[in-house]
Amino acid sequence: MKTPLAIVLGAMPLAACISFGAKPPPSLLTLTPAERVPVGQVVTSAGARAITIAVPVTPASLATARVPVQATPTSIAYVKEAIWAEPPARLFARLLSDTVQARTGRVVLSSVQAVDSPNGELAGELRQFGIDAATREAVVTFDASLRRDGTQTLEKRRFEARAPVAAIDAVSAGPALNTAANQVAAEVADWVGR
């Protein structure tokens, strides 16, 4: 008859083989705005025009924390160990908000804050936010729709930026996508601000 100690010691090698989830990546990716809102700056919707920026809708390939790679025109893979800290659409919306406020001086409001305000509204679809394997570039494509202050007319415009990637890996994908996303955000801000 085996003692309880023998049973525990016999089960220990099995404990090393059991895993309750995927191994976490070495780090998580995020976006950093090239243009920042100054810390401590107070802005009010009474003294400046305001705008609401919605989180963009995305195709299913971007509704994940992984970085897609357009391997062929009809197939998508994902960059190994490249994981976003939060969904890319939210990261991009936050980047747009910071860039629009920094470049235009507009007050960026949440949809809750803007209920009775005649402010502008920016929404859209983040169509591409990944790596193109054929060209070895990070690609960000945003189809924007803008309703300017006090109007019901919508303006639509497509923005796209590309940045080269040295390799299709987690180390290269993040900085290249950050560069392309900042370029798109700056172009959108200039369009909003005119």
UniProtKB/TrEMBL annotation:
**Keywords assigned:** Signal
> What start and end residues bound the annotated signal peptide?
1-22
Gene3D superfamilies (alphabetical): ABC-type transport auxiliary lipoprotein component
Q: Which residues form the ABC-type transport auxiliary lipoprotein component domain?
A: 38-189
Positions in coiled-coil regions: none
Top-level taxon of origin: Bacteria
Question: Does the record's keyword annotation contain Signal?
Answer: yes
Which InterPro entries does this entry report, sorted A to Z? ABC_trans_aux
What is the name of this protein?
A: Cholesterol transport system auxiliary component
